[in-house]
Amino acid sequence: MHINLLAWRGYRYGKLALILGLLSIVLYASQGGDAAQPPNGGTWQGYVLGTVGALLILWLSVLGIRKRRYNSNLGTVQGWTSAHVYLGGVLLLVATLHSAAQLGWNVHTLAYALMCMVIVSGFYGLYVYLHVPGRLAGNNAGKDREAWLEELAALDEHIREVVESCDAELQSMALSALELSRLGGSLTQQLSARDHSRILLPNQSKAVSNAEQAVMIHSLSQRIPKARKQSEAAVLNQLLALFGRRQVILNLLRRDIQLRGFLKIWLLLHIPLTIALLVALVIHIFTVFIYW
Amino acid sequence: MSDRYHLAIVGAGPAGLSAAGRAAYYDAVNGATTPSYVLLEGFSTFAKTIQKYQKGKHVMDEPGFLDLRSELGFTAGKREQILASWQQSLEAGINIRYDSEVVAIDGEKGSFRLGLQSGDVIEAEHIVFSIGTQGNPRALGVSGDAESDFVRYTLDDPADFKDETIIVVGAGDAAIENAIALSDYNKVFIINRRNEFSRAKDGNLNAVLAAINDKNRGFYCRYESSVAGLELPACSGQLGALILNTPSGEERIECHRIIARLGTVPPRKFVESCSIEISSPSMEAVPDVDRHYQSNVPGLYIIGALAGYPLIKQAMNQGYDVIEFIHGKNTKPADYPLLQGQFSGLPYVMDAEDVLDLYQQRVPMFRRMNPLAFRELIIESRIIVSLPPSELAQAAPSGDHSTHFVAAGEPLYRHGEFSTSFYTLVEGEVQLQLEQDGPWHTIKPGQFFGEMSLISGRPRQGDAVVSQDSILIETPRRIMVKLMNSNEEVRSGIDRVFVMRALQAAFRPQLSLDELAAIAGRVETCQFKAGEVLFSEGEEGECLHLIRSGTVMLTRGGANMVVAQSHSGELVGQLALMGTPKRADSATAAVRTETVLLRRPEFLTLVNSQPEHVATLQSRLSDTLQKSNAMASQPQAARAIGFLMAEGLGEATNALVIDETLCVGCDNCERACAETHNGISRLNRQSGASMAGLHVPVSCRHCELPHCMKDCPPDAIRRTANGEVFISDSCIGCGNCETNCPYGAIKLSYQAPKKPGLLSWLLFGLGSGPGEPEHFKPSAAAQDAGKKAVKCDACMGRSGGPACVQACPTGAALRLSPNQFAQLVEGR
Ligand SMILES: Cc1cc2nc3c(=O)[nH]c(=O)nc-3n(C[C@H](O)[C@H](O)[C@H](O)COP(=O)(O)OP(=O)(O)OC[C@H]3O[C@@H](n4cnc5c(N)ncnc54)[C@H](O)[C@@H]3O)c2cc1C
Ligand code: HEM
Ligand code: HEM
């Protein structure tokens, strides 16, 4: 029943985009042209293609407004988005044909380049919209981030209690492992999902990496066979299990942060570039009319 | 010591205060030197229920159509203003005794004896009972347990206490919440009579165990301990102590304060101990009273919430009226004009009171009702008169409390409409279908219909067409439920007809009404709580169930593998009687469910009388079997349905289900909800459970029998014909619906402030942007108006459908009804 945005209404806008693309090619070809007068934006066909392209860009930008006009009954946002990705895609063809690939170092090409960037970011966005949610759901296994954070907090609390009965060395190591665990961080840290957790080893003043809680888990597993009392071994074993679980949850949360980052980050390019494109486009149209 | 009065009024809530005010008026008129009445209040101040409202609560004066008739004032306003005005009236001379909880009543009219908690006895000729329905907190049951600074039965604000040792007695949710809140700044002991916190909600259970184990928190628990005694502090500021019986002997704990949260004693026990009868075992039942509010005990009158009138204004009017009646004045009650309005369009000239009596006599089922209950029924109902279409155009427009005209020959309701009101025919004729395109049945005066939807909550099955010059009473579900809860005869009468018609609809038997009634008398009505099993896979069956209300899920090969679901009006287990006796599936109630159980002999009588219908039953059965088999061969899908059922969607009619593999988490749905609903979102996308890529966010699912509608004092929660359940403007913000909703879909909220328009935000960054602001400060006006309940109304009346769905960019959000679930999960 749930239908993704590409398949919306039996690929309605995919078909429309296809027709638009074919028409543009026919129009372009009809310019004929020879070495002296190659096809370009200045012929009537060029004007038509340019106008269609500019209108498309305008309409594509309006998605930002339609998406927030919550009282609007003009189609559904899903329908708009479906049309957006198909028509945004065919725009690349329309604009390229319009310019007849006569690129140079000028404001016209700037507009073109900006458009390409918007479109590329858009395709990336489409890709993550289609693929990331499923992975995110798989990663989070039916619980939301809050619930995992709660479980992590409870786990840490538990570790703090259990470790109280251990020797001071282990205790301070475990507590530093808890304290120096890192989630999130800067944008690149969020997106790379690399583990920057650290730990303070006994008799050292500088913390070292504890990625994957590895140092802690390693040291616990080494202590167990050496434990002098059964009860001590039992406690260490319990700690090992707790840190093992901790490792899993931390990874899961890091992955959650990363995937959600993927879902949002591209809009940080897509939207500002759209605005730059609109400005460049206005200048382009303006200049071609002045320097005609 | 014993005082003697003409009249004792028990309970100084709005009802009791108003009665006392009127009694004081008569004393003044008669020039009495000593008061002839006494107002006895159990609490240390008056109107305890209202004193316990949250601070600054805006108190509403619903119902708006009713005028106030009382010596005391009351208009909508702040709790403090209302209490202050009553305080003034009290000071102007009302004979009230505080801390005088009445614990026993005996004697009879003319010489009642009222026993007080303190041991005092008061004598009175008449008693007015106005103790409300809130109940009193269960006491510790040792000497010195009266409410004081040291011993408390409520906790207003945990921040009032710092650096104290406080003992919280009790193990329910209130006790746990109080104890944890107090332990932020105090040392807290929680006293549990049992060895675990079994009565608490899961969240509280985890929280209390965590607090007990938390070594950094001054939080201690005594299990299996009961209170043996207490030592009051010598003077305020000093320590007192609590003596406990613990498994290891007696323990004495010194403390600054004791907070006892042992639940409330509902007033019912006390009421019954005064020989007042409550005829129905139902929890909500209230005692029967006559037209003058007199109970079955002569001389003992009952008014206010306890008499079944849950609003302040009604309570106050009754306080006034009851004193009039006791003084022998036969005044017309304050609602007389309403009654006149109701009957204004009837084709005869008669006093409203006489029409009332006449109608009660005309309908056999109503004859046994007490007149006051019937009066309320009429005031809350619509009187419907059918006119030929030509006259209808000239008829007076029908208002809220005047006769309602409809066109003769037209349906009163149509198949598929959501309405749950109950119709009683007084004059004329109605043609009724029991299922879509089913045969027509004729309804005669004195008979009723509409009980199917009333009981099951499902949309109407078949049409009901009214003939010319008919008169009907259309009663809202709420009033019928109240009536059925308090009047056993009405309940069983409606039930009997329900079963007969349900059998007629299911089997279309060609039997006389007597034969049908005989069968109806033999079938059994069963009730199942959610999760209870009707029958299990593999066992031999001899019966089938016809679902009255609720949803039954069929599972195969595991309790979470749901292969089919059946709703009210449908059959389950018919395979046992129409095929093999071995049950192919287990049947479990998905929500609270009622069924009619049919055994083989009754079944055979029914089907044999109408062999043609057997083919229909058989083809329906093979249809169901095909579908459930298809589902059973897709374990993933069956498990997904099991998940939806576990989330309570079995009783949904319209639920939001998000496909997690499409949802990008943009929260545009929430924003759309807020933007189309005065700035407050009624849906929380992120919360709620998920499984197998399906997510059920916290949002209203428009239940078949909405829990929220159960107990709404101003009847503000309504359902449209399309099924949307919504809250109207008459909400008083009491929070009952929030408590009653098992799905957390209702919240109380101030009105959100207005925001600048979208373009101002897009272009100039003004305001917080679309959606519900994370924090907002309500305007002074909004604070004055108070919090109101808000919930999803499924965007009723919005042509584009629900805004949340329309605003989803990826198609992840859908609103569905349970019969679409199979389609939803198949082929995922
Ligand atoms: C949170 C909340 C909000 C509400 N908001 C509104 C609103 O905005 N507008 C509205 O119209 N209604 C509102 N209601 C309903 C309204 O409070 C009640 O309908 C009304 O209080 C009923 O009045 P009463 O006099 O019958 O009973 P109560 O007000 O309950 O008074 C009963 C009194 O009797 C005393 N008492 C009890 N037992 C004994 C005994 N054995 N001996 C002596 N005294 C005893 C009690 O201490 C109490 O003072 C609200 C209810 C709640 C719970
Ligand atoms: C109303 C819309 C438009 C008009 C009227 C228009 C007009 C023109 C004209 C007249 C030319 C030829 C200039 C020349 O030969 O020197 C041209 C070239 C070009 N246009 Fe447009 N155009 C429009 C929209 C667009 C759009 C939407 C883009 C892409 C973002 C675009 C990109 C270009 C490029 C890259 C060239 C080639 C520049 C060059 O020759 O050096 N134009 N346009
Ligand atoms: C020049 C062309 C394009 C322009 C000007 C443009 C502009 C925009 C704008 C303004 C938004 C609204 C963002 C927001 O407010 O949240 C948007 C969203 C989006 N765009 Fe584009 N876009 C273009 C091309 C494309 C292409 C080619 C694709 C994909 C193939 C694409 C995919 C998307 C997607 C998936 C969204 C998100 C929709 C949502 O979350 O509501 N865009 N785009």
TrEMBL record, chain A:
Q: Which residues cross the membrane?
A: 45-65, 85-105, 111-130, 265-291
Q: Does the keyword Transmembrane helix apply?
A: yes
The superkingdom of the source organism is Bacteria
Keywords attached to this Swiss-Prot or TrEMBL record, sorted alphabetically, are:
Membrane, Transmembrane, Transmembrane helix
What this protein is called in its record is Ferric reductase like protein
Q: What is the organism lineage in this UniProt record?
A: Bacteria, Pseudomonadati, Pseudomonadota, Gammaproteobacteria, Cellvibrionales
UniProtKB/TrEMBL annotation, chain B:
What UniProt keywords apply to this chain's record, in alphabetical order?
4Fe-4S, Electron transport, Iron, Iron-sulfur, Metal-binding, Transport
SUPFAM superfamilies listed in its UniProt record: 4Fe-4S ferredoxins (SSF54862), cAMP-binding domain-like (SSF51206), FAD/NAD(P)-binding domain (SSF51905)
Q: Where is the Cyclic nucleotide-binding domain?
A: 383-501, 507-607
Pinpoint the 4Fe-4S ferredoxin-type domain residues. Answer: 654-685, 722-751, 786-819
User: Which molecular function GO terms apply here?
Assistant: 4 iron, 4 sulfur cluster binding; metal ion binding; oxidoreductase activity
- Keyword Ubl conjugation assigned to the entry: answer is no
- InterPro entries this protein is in? 4Fe4S_Fe-S-bd (IPR017896), 4Fe4S_Fe_S_CS (IPR017900), cNMP-bd_dom (IPR000595), cNMP-bd_dom_sf (IPR018490), FAD/NAD-bd_sf (IPR036188), FAD/NAD-binding_dom (IPR023753), RmlC-like_jellyroll (IPR014710), RnfB_subfamily (IPR050294)
Does Iron-sulfur show up as a keyword for this record?
yes
What protein am I looking at? Cyclic nucleotide-binding domain-containing protein
